[in-house]
Amino acid sequence: MIYVIATTPMKPENKDDFIRGHKACTVETLKEKGCISYDGNVSVNNPNLYVVVERWETREDLNAHGRAPHMKVWREYSSQMKTAPTVIEIISDAKVEKF
């Protein structure tokens, strides 16, 4: 199993639009092959930080998710609503990769 933690600092003035857009992305992601869970929420420690926790069956499924058409739309939509790039941590087989 592959775990992913993705954290995105949101511009406060775009927070509601960012969350609404991500919820739409979530609906499509949950339909993908190998997606066990995919959930995004505002951080309990920072109201302008969005945290996504994902679980995937395989790395191949996760890689396919990154290439999915709705993810391209999401990346374009959300790009102007961030104060910094998303930090992605991929956890599998007792190792952590950070992007």
TrEMBL record:
Q: Does the keyword Oxidoreductase feature in the UniProt annotation? A: yes
Q: Which UniProt keywords apply?
A: Monooxygenase, Oxidoreductase
The answer to whether UniProt assigns keyword Nucleus to this entry is no
Specify the signal sequence span. none
Span of domain ABM: 2-90
Q: Which GO terms describe its molecular function?
A: monooxygenase activity
Recorded protein name is Quinol monooxygenase YgiN
Organism of origin is: Bradyrhizobium stylosanthis
